[in-house]
Amino acid sequence: MRPLQMVDTKTQYHKIKNEVDAAVLAVMESSQFIGGKVVNDFATNLGKYHGSKHVIPCANGTDALQIAMMALGLQPGDEVITPSFTYIATVEVAALLHIKPIFVEVDKRTFCIDPEVLENAITPKTKAIVPVHLYGHAANMEAIMAIAKKHNLFVIEDNAQAIGNDYRFSDGTVKKTGTIGDIGCTSFYPSKNLGAFGDGGAIFTDNDDLAQQLRMIASHGQSKRYYHDVVGCNSRLDAMQAAILDIKLRHLDEYIAARQKAADFYDRAFAGQSKIETPYRDLNNNHVFHQYTLLLHDADRDGLHKFLADKGIPSMIYYPVPAHRQKMFDAFGGSSYHLPVTDWLTERVISLPIHTELDEEQQQFIASAVLEFINL
User: Fold this and answer.
1) pLDDT tens digits, one per residue of 147-201
2) Which of 306, 351, 342 is nearest to 86 (CA)?
3) DSSP category for residue 230
4) pLDDT value, residue 360
5) How high is the pLDDT of residue 158?
6) I need a labelling partner for 363 at 20 to 30 A (CA). Which of 214, 233, 283, 312 fits?
7) Do domains 9-249 and 252-374 have the same CATH topology?
8) 293 - beta bridge partners?
9) How far apart are the C-alpha atoms of 94 and 81, rounded to whole Å?
């Protein structure tokens, strides 16, 4: 059996090695390492795949979120509503811009922001909602968009973990996550479903004016070279990463299907186990399984984590400390929040290896080890 990894990027690379190597060599031969045709072609192809009018590549997913907030004109003292149960980047960028994150609960089934608590969190200072499509499952965007429209709020989707997810509205309309709100943001970190061989990110919008603003901010606030209209930053996706991503984009649906197949295996293996709750699957969205995250009941999560490690099986806890309990948010009153569902989840979730290269022998070994511990 091959050694187990949370994400096997090396084996994935070897399957497309010839394509990737040729694309990288072509960039080196062109010597156009920043911007240019390769980056533009990737943006165009990603927009076609995503159904998004404008795609603005940038340096990473964190920059994408920051640039989005800047483009919407959010100012110090404004508030954005966000889940606390998320990777820190979602809320870190707000704090960096002196925007106040307002933390709200998540749905304990989907791990995504709970629309039922949104309206109670809205104040005159609220300017935006930042739903996170966590682990590959979409937030309830239909409800979130209705609330945003009612209160005239912007919606910035954190789609770093759910690229390729098809979200179905009640009228049958289907849109990719990241294209539903005013702006969508994603990451191409190597472990992502669409991962680069380094850092990378992108921003999505259908709004022409916003797209112009996003592009300027990502490029030092320039409308044209050396003419700086707004305060911006320097956030670029380099051509080599764009070339690699363009190759991998052609395989994205295949990668998603492989992850879903692996998730199906785990679901069957853990069926009927009262101490194990497998990931919830909402019929309105196509879970793309960036992570396969179990929710344990009356079981020692940390004990399982160690037990698996002792057997050479990697597992991860995403996330052991929610954002509102991080020291960095003490200045924003983080410790004053009462988010029992979020706290409850952080003590019980554990993610198992899931990626495009998992085989049944590996999964059987992983599942057997989990069941061995749970039934001790």
Assistant:
1) 999 999 999 999 999 999 999 999 999 999 999 999 999 999 999 999 999 999 9
2) 342
3) S
4) 94
5) 98
6) 283
7) no
8) 351
9) 10
Pairing of strands 201-205, 54-58: antiparallel
CATH number of 252-374: 3.90.1150.10
Q: Are 188 and 245 in contact (CB under 8 A)?
A: yes
Residue 46 tokens, joined = 């990603």
Per-residue pLDDT at 334: 81
- Pick from 279, 296, 304: which is nearest to 346 by CA? 296
Report domain extents, the chain.
9-249, 252-374
DSSP string, 232-264: --B---BHHHHHHHHHHHTTHHHHHHHHHHHHH
Is CATH 3.40.50.970 correct for 9-249?
no
Residues 6+ away with beta carbon under 8 Å from 370: 269, 270, 276, 294, 304, 308, 352
Show the tokens assigned to 357.
Answer: 């290269």
Alpha-carbon span 344 to 339, nearest angstrom: 9
DSSP track, 340-352: HHHHHHHTTEEEE
The per-residue pLDDT for range 310-320, each reduced to its tens digit, is: 999 999 999 99
Both tokens of 129, joined, read 């909602």
First to last CA, the chain: 25
How far apart, in whole angstroms, are the C-alpha atoms of residue 23 and residue 246? Answer: 9
In this structure, which amino acid lies at residue 40? N
Whole-angstrom distance, CA of residue 312 vs CA of residue 10: 18
- Which of the 8 DSSP states describes residue 113? B
Amino acid at residue number 28? M
Longest CA span, the chain: 67
Per DSSP, the three-state class of 198 is coil
In 3-state terms the chain splits into helix, strand, coil percentages (rounded to 5) of 45, 15, 40
- Reported as a single tens digit per residue, the pLDDT across 76-125 is 999 999 999 999 999 999 999 999 999 999 999 999 999 999 999 999 99
